[in-house]
Design a protein that fits this description.
- The complex is a heterodimer of chains A (about 45) and B (about 190).
- With about 45 residues, chain A is of the alpha+beta class.
- In chain A, about 30% of the residues lie in helices and about 25% in strands.
- Chain A contains one helix and two strands.
- Chain A has a two-stranded antiparallel sheet with strand order 1-2.
- The longest helix of chain A is centred in the middle third of the chain and has 13 residues.
- Chain A is rod-shaped, with a radius of gyration of 23 Å.
- Chain B starts with 7 loop residues before the first helix and ends in a 7-residue tail after the last helix.
- Chain B has about 190 residues and is mainly α.
- The chains are: A alpha+beta (about 45), B mainly alpha (about 190).
- At the A-B interface, helix 1 and strand 1 of A face helix 2 and helix 3 of B.
């Protein structure tokens, strides 16, 4: 059977963010806290 | 599978009440859809990763600040944030176009740093120093013409006036100065290149 030389379009099967990105977001969420003070909200990022 | 039983709205509420695990479930539940959505617009893995991250940073901030009030519409909300960030990305790129260096044309073949690096500068200094010493070995009249021409940047007319000789004599002295320099360089196998 004749070979097909036409290029197959690359399939993007694994369209998922990197594990590090997700880990970073979860850590960021844990580090971020909102402080309420006299109707004001302050963001605080703990390292 | 157990996670699917809990709706987004409940997870969002739990997260806003301090349950960090709820966010993890939300991200894992929707990451593929959101990531694909961004990728379908920008067609670049790295940019998609950045936009995805920025989108969720916004999501986290808004939820923690209690600004979210679209219960039951979590995914469309994140999609809209992502969409806005994609637009921001393209706007920013229009203002400052990015050079893609992956193609045949390399921008670095056009742009170059013409200044010498530390090593080349040292070599250059050494070469110039050696050359100075060789020039010192030349006969006085030749040395005088060569220094005036090369180091003082004088014209042969000015040199001839200064040294009280004809232009042809000055030219001849310059020629012999160069011939003699080459001879000494060849004889002693001196390498004067950078």
């Amino acid at each position: 059977m004749a070979k097909l030389y036409s290029e197959c379009p690359q399939k993007q099967n694994d369209l998922n963010p990197k594990e590090e990105t997700v880990d970073f977001l979860l850590s960021y969420s844990k580090a971020l806290s909102v402080i309420h003070c006299n109707n004001l909200k302050f963001e605080a990022l703990q390292n | 599978m157990r996670h699917e039983l809990i709706t987004d709205a409940v997870l969002v509420k739990n997260y806003m009440n301090g349950d960090e695990n709820a966010l993890s479930i939300l991200i894992h539940r929707h990451k593929q859809k959101i990531y694909s959505f961004i990728y379908s617009k920008v067609f670049d893995r790295d940019i998609t990763e950045d936009v995805f991250q920025d989108a969720f940073i916004k999501v986290i901030k808004n939820l923690k600040l209690g600004k979210y009030n679209e219960e039951g519409k979590f995914l469309p909300w994140v999609m809209r944030i992502s969409h806005n960030l994609v637009i921001d990305h393209f706007r920013k790129n229009n203002r400052m176009p990015k050079f893609d260096n992956s193609g045949e044309f390399s921008i670095f073949s056009v742009l170059g740093d013409s200044s010498l690096n530390a090593e080349k500068r040292l070599i250059k200094d050494q070469v110039e120093c050696d050359l100075r010493r060789l020039i010192e070995e030349l006969p006085e009249d030749q040395k005088e013409v060569l220094i005036m021409r090369m180091y003082k940047d004088m014209s042969f007319k000015e040199i001839s006036e200064r040294t009280d000789v004809s232009i042809n004599t000055a030219l001849g002295r310059m020629r012999y100065a160069l011939i003699n320099l080459r001879k000494v360089i060849d004889k002693n196998n001196i390498i004067l290149t950078n």
